[in-house]
Amino acid sequence: MSDNNKNNDNKKSATNTMTDRELLSEWEIDNLPNRLTIFRVALIPVICLTLYLCLFEENIFKATQKTLGYIAAWTFVAASFTDFLDGYIARKRNIVTVFGSFLDPIADKFLVVSSLILLQSLNRVNVLVVIVLVIREMYMTALRLLAMEKGLKVSVNQLGKWKTTFQMMAIPMLMAWDKPFGFSFPLVGTILIYLSFFFSVLSALVYTFGLAKRITEVRQAKKAKV
Q1: Where are the domains of the chain?
Q2: Transmembrane region positions (predicted)?
Q3: Where are the beta strands (DSSP E) in 23-76?
């Protein structure tokens, strides 16, 4: 066998090895971003339990209601921080896995939706606000899946980021439900959750019109070819 053939075989072998490594890394579960995501999911029952105990009127729970609220609030803050941290680490180290791509957005939705439902049960959030925020999450997920399936790229607007920012600030304040040093968590939290409500509706409309415009452009391009 000639040296050229040997070199070609070596190159093919190296290419196949790299492909196998990329495939394995894509399906890897045990990495730091995924561990943080799993940890975030594990914190959700803690938040749910502490808020659920606030529903009871018995003296033992009523006396510790403020403490339970703060436990839920700080746990929510910790869970939200892991969301930022796992994304930062994944981008920094260029880690993209099937497991992370699946679990990370679901973990965020589980965290927010379960918190909102329990806050509504405590009469700290208007029921219509909760319904709209939850339906909006389901609606946007369906739209993004449709866009992905059809290979359509729609630019993400900043309104959604504002919605998330206000929401993540409002929820722990509504969980704590206290007035430390005269600062009213209930009042500020309520204002922030209504701002989140406004931006959630607005961002969903903007994304919907953007996707509809993109679909129209694709259809017109196909008609022009015919």
Answers
A1: 31-123, 125-226
A2: 37-56, 68-90, 110-135, 156-177, 183-212
A3: none
